[in-house]
Backbone:
């Protein structure tokens, strides 16, 4: 394995801390930017091209029936392999918005189509969860697990703002570790359950 430095050709101002790299249908995508030129890329998702040590970004379009996907920084991102006729996709949960808000939403990102010139179009849908639902957070992890033919998603860790009852003018923007809970999502029915591990309470739960 070797590491090679890259020179950003048309995107140096777009590479902000906390972005995510995804690979969908063989294409590398960069997601989670702040301050991109809205006219050239209203979605904030870019295709990444590497050539001769240079990196270029190309705006990616979304289908007309997609929901709005904010440019989230430090979200939990998890890849879903194709199964039961469903396409390759990504789950995206939480993250910080450009307005410094912390999201609690869960999104499903898939490929919608390829144009005649191989231009990629994405589709984004917000997924609703019921039960013990994880609150807003960032810096956490999310992974897929399989058992007895069932597929589920495990979410753990992260940081969030202090509880509303504890926030004052002085600490309004202070963040704390989320409670030591492990959340399990049933992707077929959208059910969420949580297990509390008090033994983890002394460790930092963010990444």
Residues:
């Amino acid at each position: 394995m070797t590491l090679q430095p890259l020179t950003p050709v048309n995107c140096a101002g777009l590479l902000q801390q906390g972005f995510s790299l995804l690979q969908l249908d063989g294409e590398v995508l960069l997601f989670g930017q702040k301050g991109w030129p809205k006219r050239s890329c209203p979605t904030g998702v870019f295709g990444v091209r590497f050539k001769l040590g240079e990196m270029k970004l190309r705006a990616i379009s979304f289908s007309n029936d997609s929901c709005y996907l904010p440019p989230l920084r430090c979200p939990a991102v998890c890849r879903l392999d194709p199964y039961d006729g469903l396409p390759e996709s990504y789950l995206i949960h939480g993250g910080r918005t450009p307005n410094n808000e912390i999201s609690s939403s869960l999104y499903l990102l898939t490929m919608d189509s390829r144009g005649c010139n191989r231009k990629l179009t994405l589709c984004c849908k917000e997924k609703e969860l019921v039960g013990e639902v994880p609150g807003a957070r960032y810096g956490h992890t999310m992974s897929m697990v399989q058992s007895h033919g069932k597929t589920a998603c495990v979410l753990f860790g992260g940081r969030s703002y202090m509880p509303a009852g504890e926030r004052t003018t002085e600490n309004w923007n202070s963040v704390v570790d989320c409670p030591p809970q492990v959340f399990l999502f049933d992707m077929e029915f959208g059910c969420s359950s949580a297990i509390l591990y008090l033994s983890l309470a002394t460790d930092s739960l963010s990444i």
Remarks:
- The mean pLDDT is 82.
- The chain has one domain: 7-200.
- The radius of gyration is 18 Å.
- Residues 7-200 form one domain.
